[in-house]
User: Which sequence fits this backbone?
């Protein structure tokens, strides 16, 4: 009898411990309650962000380099961070090679690696030098290696992945001027080719992604033609244009021949440095999501080219590839940020890391936008 009592008591204690263990686990994507994630180890904005597919080891979100809280030339960092959505934990990874960090770089995760393109270096005089290097990060080995340099070095470009192999680097600013180049990188051969240039104005700080065979990008900034002749005119203004590019498919298709079509305007006003990301591909479509940004283009400190402070937009919206139209996700996104150029789509949530809040404050927070019941 005593032995049976001890066995029953031990089993009860074990069951209580198991329940306690599962209750204490981080709130993951599979949990039924609202997703909550901890802040980054350090505040950062205008970083190069990327997200992996969920896979067996769980989905990872990466942040490379960017501007720190000081918002000055010596506040730029080359630190790298990884957020594991399965555990809900951040980990600092090996910093990018080099003694200084960069702003305006772009990143894409492909087959267990993260490809990081371009960006610019800022010196104490405020001079910005566009970089052409391609660094590739291997998470499981915590190391980097160099890919072939970007032919036309760019910053604040849109990047997207096609067929899990080809990365399109779309537009951006090169050596002080926005460009229309579409540069295509083959991750298997480490080679570059040039695609059909943009049909709209040359812009930088635009936002977009690739889903299936479709490129969607919106807005950005272009040089103000009135800047030289009108008093107090801003050097750059936000573009209201939105575009779709169709990439040819098929066994012998030339993927460099992109068919560009102008789209109607998206919900809300024209903006600069909106965060964007592609959702999972669905039958005959899927969604590309956009959140935040600002209607007043600025350089690196949140003060516009017109000398006025920029503030984040609270509108989150999406392009539905199946219907070919725009959808408003949230007109009043809580904790809206700007200067966060990448969105990670995770289950029924959009995840934005870092960025600038109201008052141009660089933040370490993780902004979560729920998609439940929104589409």
Assistant:
């Amino acid at each position: 009898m005593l032995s049976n009592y001890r066995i029953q008591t031990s089993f009860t204690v074990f069951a209580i411990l198991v329940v306690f263990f599962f209750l204490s686990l981080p709130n993951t994507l599979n949990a039924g309650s609202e997703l909550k994630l901890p802040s980054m180890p350090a505040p950062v904005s205008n970083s190069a962000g990327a997200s992996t597919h969920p896979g067996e080891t769980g989905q990872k979100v990466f942040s490379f380099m960017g501007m720190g809280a000081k918002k000055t030339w010596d506040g730029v960092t080359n630190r790298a961070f990884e957020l594991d959505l399965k555990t809900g934990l951040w980990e600092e990874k090996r910093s990018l090679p080099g003694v200084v960090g960069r702003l305006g770089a772009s990143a894409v995760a492909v087959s267990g690696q993260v490809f990081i393109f371009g960006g610019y270096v800022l010196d104490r005089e405020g001079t910005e030098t566009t970089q052409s290097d391609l660094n590739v990060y291997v998470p499981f080995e915590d190391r980097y290696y160099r890919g072939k340099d970007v032919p036309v070095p760019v910053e604040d470009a849109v990047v997207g992945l096609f067929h899990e192999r080809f990365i399109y680097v779309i537009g951006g600013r090169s050596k002080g001027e926005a460009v229309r180049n579409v540069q295509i990188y083959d991750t298997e051969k480490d080679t570059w080719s040039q695609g059909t240039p943009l049909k709209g104005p040359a812009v930088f700080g635009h936002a977009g992604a690739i889903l299936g065979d479709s490129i969607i990008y919106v807005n950005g900034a272009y040089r103000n033609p009135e800047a030289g002749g009108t008093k107090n005119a801003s050097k750059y203004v936000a573009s209201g244009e939105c575009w779709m590019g169709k990439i040819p498919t098929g066994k012998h298709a030339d993927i460099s021949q992109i068919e560009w079509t102008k789209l109607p305007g998206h919900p809300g006003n024209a903006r600069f440095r909106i965060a964007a990301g592609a959702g999972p591909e669905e039958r005959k479509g899927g969604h590309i999501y956009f959140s935040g940004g600002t209607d007043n283009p600025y350089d690196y400190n949140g003060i516009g080219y017109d000398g006025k402070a920029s503030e984040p937009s609270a509108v989150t919206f999406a392009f539905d590839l199946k219907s070919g139209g725009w959808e408003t996700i949230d007109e009043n996104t809580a904790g809206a940020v700007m200067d966060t150029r990448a969105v990670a789509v995770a289950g029924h949530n959009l995840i934005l890391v870092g960025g600038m809040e109201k008052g141009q404050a660089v933040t370490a927070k993780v902004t979560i936008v729920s998609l439940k019941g929104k589409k």
